[in-house]
Amino acid sequence: MPAIAKTAPIYMRSRRFDRLFVLGIPSLALAVGALALGYPQYVVLILTLDLALLGYHHVISTYTRLLFDMKSARRHWALLLPLPVAVFAGVYLLIRWGGVTAVATLYMHWQWYHYTRQSEGINKAYGMKTRSAQAGNALFNRLTFYLVPVAAFLMMSARPESTFLGIEVWKLPAPQWLAQATLAAAVACLAWWLAAQLRALRAGTLGLLHFAYLCSHYVIYLVSYVAIRDITTGWLVINVWHNAQYIAFVWLFNSNQFKGGVNRQQLVLSWLSQEGRWPLYLMACVALTGVVYRSIDASNAWFANYTMVPLVVIAYQGINFHHYIVDSIIWKLRKRDVQSALKIG
Questions:
Q1: Which of 20, 169, 243, 252 could form a disulfide with 58 if both were Cys (CB 3.0 to 4.6 A apart)?
Q2: What is the per-residue pLDDT across 96-137, written as a single tens digit (0 to 9) for each?
Q3: Over the range 90-124, which residues count as b (16 or more CB within 10 Å of their CB) and which as e?
Q4: pTM of the model
Q5: Which helix (H) or strand (E) holds 330?
C-alpha cells in the first residue's frame, strides 16, 4: 500500500500559539472549575480574579477595533454613539419592568448564545485558515455543533437551582424529560460525528488542531452546563474559556493586521501589535481596563446619592450587551477586512 504523502501543517498563527489556544485555554478553564469545586470557600475570590484579569479585559479588547485610532472611530461611529445610548436605555427599561432579576436573566441567556456564536466563528476560521473540513455531512456537523450547547443549556434550565451570581433568575421552563431526551440525541449525534472524524484520522485526512478545537467546544459545554450542577460554578468554566479565547483571538487579529510594520494612521495599536510585544499589548489593555472600570465605579458611587436606580447594573450590563451586539457585527468572517487580517480566503 503506497504511503500517504504528508504536508506541513497550517496554523492559525504558529504551532505554539495554536496549541495554547486549542489545548491550553480549555485546560485553564477546566482547572479553574475544578479549583472552584474543590475549594468552594474561594469561589468569590476566583470569580473576582476572572473578572479582573479576563472578563473586563476581554470586553475592552473589543474596542481596540473601534477606538484606538480616529480611522476606526469614524468608520464605526454608529456603534460608538447611537448604539450605546439605545442599549443603556434598554437596560434601564428592563430594570423598571423586571428589576435586577430580569437583567440577570437576559445576561445569562444572551451570554450563552454569544459564547456559542463566537465558538462557531472560531471553528469556521480554523477550517478556512488550515484548509480543514470535518469529515461527514456538513449539515449534520453543524446541527451537532449547535445541538450539544442547546441540550447542555436545557439540562441546566431543567434543574431546580435558580441562583446565578447570587441573583435569582428566570430559567426556560424546560421539563426534565425534554432536557434528557435532547441530551441523549446530542450525545448520539456527537458519537456519530466522532466516528466519522476517527475514520478521517485513520485515512490521514483529519486536521488535528481543528478537530481538537471542536472537541474542546463540546467538552466545555457538557462540563459547564451538565456535569457541574451549580449555575455559577459551571458558568465560571465557560466564562474563563470564552474570555481567554477572545483576548487571544483579538491579539491574533491585530498582530496579523499590522504584520507589515507600524501604521502611522493607527500608530498606538499597530506599535503594540508588533511581533514580540504581546506583553506590552496585554499590559496596555489591562491598564485601559482599569481606567475605564474604575471611572465607572467612581461615577456610580457619586450618582448613587441622587437616584434609587441601580446604576452599577445599568453600566456594567449595558457595556456587556453593547459588546455582544458589536461583536456580532465586526467579526463576521465574510467581511474582507476580517479575512485579510486572519489571512483566510
A1: 243
A2: 999 999 999 999 999 999 999 999 999 988 888 877 778 889
A3: bbbebbeeeeeebbbbbbbbebbebbbebbbbbbe
A4: 0.91
A5: helix 311-330
Retrieve residue 12's grid coordinates: 492559525
C-beta atoms surrounding 47 within 10 Å? 20
CA separation for the pair 105, 228 (Å, rounded): 19
Q: Quickly count: other Cβ atoms within 10 Å of residue 14's Cβ.
A: 9
If we measure between CA atoms, which residue out of 172, 70, 200, 52 comes closest to residue 113?
A: 172
Q: Which three cell numbers stand for residue 215?
A: 472537541
Residues 3-62 have pLDDT tens digits of 444 445 677 778 888 899 999 999 999 999 999 999 999 999 999 999 888 998 888 888
CB of 25 closer than 8 Å to CB of 237:
no
The 10 Å Cβ neighbour count of residue 246 is 23
